[in-house]
Amino acid sequence: MLKGQLLRIVFVVWVSVSVIGCTGLPEGVQPVKSFDVQRYQGVWYEIARLDHRFERGMDSVTATYEVQSDGTVTVLNRGYVVEDGQWKQAEGVAKFVSDPTLGHLKVSFFGPFYGSYVVFKLDKENYEYAYVTSYNKDYLWLLSRTPKVSEAVLKDFQNTVKELGYSVDELIYMKHTAAMKL
């Protein structure tokens, strides 16, 4: 009996640590303050990212965010799978981890499992570009309201993330050719 209770406690602690770890912040990265989710909603074009299996082989990737009446944010990620010649999309939901004025949300595409969504740099004047990461430095995105950014924004992104310890040499730069065919 005692062994079964101990196993349950260990399991609950393990799940709790796993979930908290996935909604945490990477070392040295802080979410933006004075974040306005109303201004953030809408379509964002992916400009650059680190490779990961969810978007491998895609171009013309976009993310669309829509604030719901309950304060959650629906997420629609969409990309063109070049090899298959077809569009793929994933729908999810995001919630603020704590303070809704901090750019730190948790997003889920798979039921009760959430991962960090951290906006750590943002064009606060016009909300034209955003630097986004997750709970560790294996995930990184440069998002923009347009399919291209200025050379100045691109260089700032590269310099900023390099200083934070991201693998700048491994960045993938997005093509938005399939989006132009719509």
Descriptive overview:
The chain has helices spanning 2-22, 37-40, 151-163, 177-180, and strands at 42-50, 58-67, 73-81, 86-96, 104-110, 113-122, 129-133, 140-144, 171-173. By secondary structure, the protein is of the alpha+beta class. The protein contains 4 helices and 9 strands, in the order H-H-E-E-E-E-E-E-E-E-H-E-H. A hairpin with a 2-residue loop joins strand 5 (104-110) and strand 6 (113-122). It has an 8-stranded antiparallel β-barrel with strand order 1-2-3-4-5-6-7-8. The N and C termini lie far apart (62 Å). 23% of the residues lie in helices and 38% in strands.
Count the DSSP helices. 4
Mean pLDDT: 88
SSE sequence, one letter per element: HHEEEEEEEEHEH
Q: Give the oligomeric state of the chains in this entry, treating copies of one chain as homo and distinct chains as hetero.
A: single chain
| Helical/strand content category | alpha+beta
From the spread of the alpha carbons, the general shape counts as globular
pLDDT < 50 stretches = 3-21
Question: How far apart are the first and last residues' alpha carbons, in Å?
Answer: 62 Å
